[in-house]
Specification:
413 residues, alpha/beta, Lyase, Ornithine Decarboxylase, Chain A, domain 1, TIM Barrel, 9-stranded mixed β-sheet, 8-stranded parallel β-barrel, 13 helices, binds pyridoxal-5'-phosphate
């Protein structure tokens, strides 16, 4: 995808003055490389793509076509998986809040449902009592310390005995079983070391809780770093591991514990790792202003488009210059690229240290994770998302521009 000012001008004419560009081919190659890093060591590995990280249906369809699971944490995401043709047995239903109806339907449809809390256990045991002829099988999310520096609220506390209680309760029912164990523990450094520890701990737990029969799966969740440009990498004060480094922290331990063909399936649930670098945001510069010592350039975008989680990192930015602009329409030196909201903190990029002017395009990179799914409907409707097909050398719409009507359609007027 070769961008230039002229190309962006043509895209603006077709799609509007701000839009996302999705690179589906990069997504597919990230997915395959990530999976292959694990499979080359532990062949019985599969990926479950974390829908919440970025649920653009074209991404979810790509995962489906590559044989991955849909990892969902709400009925909304479950419904999307079904709508794009994923069979219930290829859906992993996680998350802290599942309604009794959604939970029961997913279990009965054959999805992998990882329970998170005792209330969910009660829903499952009462279902098992109501349907004594029906085999009910679930996974359990475990909560243990990997040195993350905080106590996670998710899953069953291993140390405090909650996991033990659930196994006891299920053993009392003839038709209820645990298929496997799950954990997802987010840490700020996403370190290789923490993945070594969680793998070792989950193997110890499966040895203890599955003494006679191997579990069907071990699900280690997500939370891995993805690929990023050097300028972004330099802002982290920790090492950014490669796919290979993560695979080497996890897969050999499983390989040596389960060397034969009947090994449990290893499930990994990446979001960031495969999607972070597949989306760019293009915003046209439409205004310039100097206020005392501060220079600002207004773009058709907001911090909510590119950093809705309000990370303090500076994203990779490239400005495509409009060669035609007059001296009066540009600034140079230190310029803050600001957005359309009325919030002072709406600065997409502080201290841009080059020339920038009206008619230029600011292109922000590494925006695949927690952007389009996290943006509030604040002040302006959502911009469109387009995708580039390198075979056809063509851009196509994958989400149209939102209208005012879309935004207000659920209100009573
Ligand atoms: C259960 C579960 N799996 C996978 C993920 C994906 O995490 P990431 O996008 O950091 O890889 C999350 C994110 O919070 C999660 O809660």
């Amino acid at each position: 995808m070769q961008l230039s000012w002229q190309r962006l001008f043509e895209l603006e004419t077709e799609f509007g003055d701000s839009f996302f560009i999705l690179d589906l081919e990069k997504f597919a190659s990230n997915y395959q490389e990530f999976l292959q890093s694990f499979r080359s060591i532990y062949p019985h590995t599969n990926l479950g793509y974390s829908y919440k990280t970025n649920y653009i249906p074209k991404l979810c369809q790509t995962v489906h076509s590559l044989g991955g699971y849909a990892e969902v944490v709400s009925q909304m995401e479950y419904d999307l998986a079904i709508a794009i043709g994923v069979s219930p047995s290829r859906i992993i239903f996680n998350g802290p809040l599942k309604s009794p109806e959604d939970l029961e339907n997913a279990i009965l449809a054959g999805s992998i449902v990882n329970l998170d809390c005792l209330e969910e256990v009660e829903i499952v045991t009462s279902l098992a009592r109501r349907l004594p002829e029906q085999k009910i099988a679930v996974g359990l999310r475990c909560n243990f310390d990997v040195g993350a520096g905080r106590i996670s609220r998710f899953g069953f506390d291993v140390e405090g005995g909650a996991l033990d209680d659930v196994f006891k309760e299920f053993r009392e029912l003839n038709n209820c079983s645990v298929l496997g164990l799950h954990c997802h523990i987010s840490t700020s450094t996403r370190s290789v070391e923490s993945y070594k520890i969680r793998t070792q701990k989950i193997i110890e737990l499966t040895d203890y809780y599955f003494p006679n029969q191997q579990p069907q799966f071990i699900d280690l969740g997500g939370g891995f770093f993805g690929r990023m440009q050097d300028d972004l990498k330099a802002q982290f004060d920790c090492h950014i591991p490669s796919y290979q480094e993560y695979a080497e922290a996890i897969a050999p331990q499983l390989r040596s514990r389960f060397p034969d063909d009947s090994a449990p399936e290893l499930i990994i649930e990446p979001g960031v790792a495969v999607v972070a670098d597949v989306l760019k945001f293009v915003a046209k510069v439409v205004g310039i202003k100097t206020v005392r010592s501060r220079q600002v350039a207004l773009v058709v975008g907001s911090i909510h488009n590119i950093k809705p989680t309000l990370t303090d990192k500076k994203l990779s930015l490239q400005v495509y210059r409009n060669g035609e602009i007059s001296h009066n329409s540009k600034l140079s030196g230190s310029v803050d690229l600001v957005g359309y909201t009325c919030m002072e903190h709406d600065c997409l990029y502080p201290d841009y240290a080059d020339e920038i002017g009206i008619g230029d395009y600011a292109v922000f990179d590494n925006l695949g994770a927690y952007t389009v799914v996290f943006k509030p409907p604040f002040i302006r409707p959502n911009p469109p998302i387009i995708s580039y097909d390198s075979t056809l050398e063509k851009y196509t719409l994958v989400r149209r521009k939102e209208t005012s009507q879309d935004v207000f359609s659920t209100y009573v007027i």
